[in-house]
Specification:
Blueprint (H helix, E strand, L loop, with lengths): L2 H7 L3 H8 L8 H21 L7 H13 L25 H5 L7 E2 L4 E2 L7 H8 L3 E4 L2 H13 L3 E5 L5 E3 L2 E2 H7 L3 E5 L7 H7 L4 E4 L1 E2 L15 H10 L6 E2 L17 H7 L24 E2 L7 E4 L6 H7 L1
Parallel strand pairs: 4-7, 4-8, 9-10
Antiparallel strand pairs: 1-2, 3-12, 5-6, 11-12
Helix pairs in contact: 3-4, 7-8, 7-12
């Protein structure tokens, strides 16, 4: 059979469903239909590429559904000789076992007195984001702490186009007002210039706020100042300039595109890597108070990073 004949020989979705009727009743029909179309698309692509496999559409569908039923994560035996193997889940620490007994959660073993619970994660966060930081429940908590400690009783300048709801009721204006700060909107929904921020600064201004619109885009006739422009204005007026990132990549990646890159944002804010240092994540810190609250990959959590080691944000979270 030539290529055209093989393509014509493929059954229709309806024909495959008729043959499978009664044999896959434990699966939802919508799932079976979707897998049927996927199997036929795969078979069609293989024929066109010249690498046909001798598998019927029914066999492909059954194999795919069986694979969906199997748990993706399974226990394995690490016989590689590498103790902390990145492909095998790194260190298998029994976290729940630790919670069943006593631990040094808030006790300094070296000094023999009460410690702080944020010290366990702080060294790791500093190496991850390039600045001293703390871990909190989520991005809303990170934003609230930063605004409450850096701008309570004062004004926060933010673009109208960034007063957004990210999800699960997390509305930037609500978080800002609850922090005790007064919202000073500038620009318009679609266009905000650096001059708008500059004109809004007065004796009550505490910080310039930037929000990454993680789950929507305004396209077309738009304008937004570069982060480096906002950082330069903040340095000029001695104002903090935190940024709510919602999510971000520690460094550039080939597969994850389009999201904010934390390392570029730090660079735009004046955080530089010292000469001769090649290890990413160990960055020199400059005085950029409150930079940047954000959420990073790895589950529902938030981080507050601030170059000042005794940042008021860190002290607030430790209380």
């Amino acid at each position: 059979m030539n290529e055209t004949e093989k393509l014509r020989a493929l059954p229709s979705v309806h024909e495959v469903l008729e043959r499978l009727s009664g044999s896959l009743t434990r699966f939802p029909r919508a799932l079976i239909v979707a897998e049927t179309r996927r199997a036929l698309d795969d078979a069609r692509a293989e024929i066109l590429s010249g690498r046909t496999r001798e598998l019927t559409p029914e066999t492909r569908i059954c194999q795919a559904l069986e694979a969906l039923e199997r748990p993706a994560l399974r226990r394995v035996i690490n016989a590689t000789g590498v103790v902390l193997h990145t492909n095998l889940g790194r260190a298998p620490l029994p976290a729940m076992e630790m919670l069943r007994g006593y631990s040094n959660l808030e006790y300094d073993l070296e000094r023999g007195r009460r410690g702080k619970r944020d010290t366990h994660a702080a060294p790791l966060i500093e190496r991850l984001i390039g600045a001293p930081g703390i871990a909190v429940n989520n991005n809303a908590a990170a934003v609230f702490l930063a605004l409450h400690e850096l701008a309570s009783g004062g004004e926060v300048v933010v673009s109208r186009g960034e007063l957004i709801e990210i999800g699960d009721g997390f509305r930037i204006p609500d978080i800002m007002s609850r922090s005790g700060a007064t919202v000073r909107e500038v620009g318009t929904t679609n266009r905000t210039r650096i001059e708008d921020y500059r004109d809004a600064i007065n004796q009550h201004t505490r910080l310039l706020f930037r929000v990454h619109p993680s789950n929507f885009r305004i396209t077309g006739f738009t304008a937004r100042p570069e982060l480096r422009e906002l950082a330069a204005l903040g340095r000029e007026r001695s104002l903090a300039r935190p940024r709510a990132e919602s999510a971000g990549l520690r460094g550039p990646g080939k597969r994850l595109r389009g999201g904010p890159l934390a390392f570029r944002n730090r660079r735009a804010a004046g955080v530089r890597q010292p000469p001769g240092r090649r290890r990413p994540g160990l960055l020199q810190r400059r005085q950029t108070p409150g930079w940047p609250p954000g959420r990073y990959p790895g589950g529902q959590a938030g981080t507050c990073g601030a170059p000042a080691p005794q940042s008021p944000v860190s002290r607030a979270a430790a209380r």
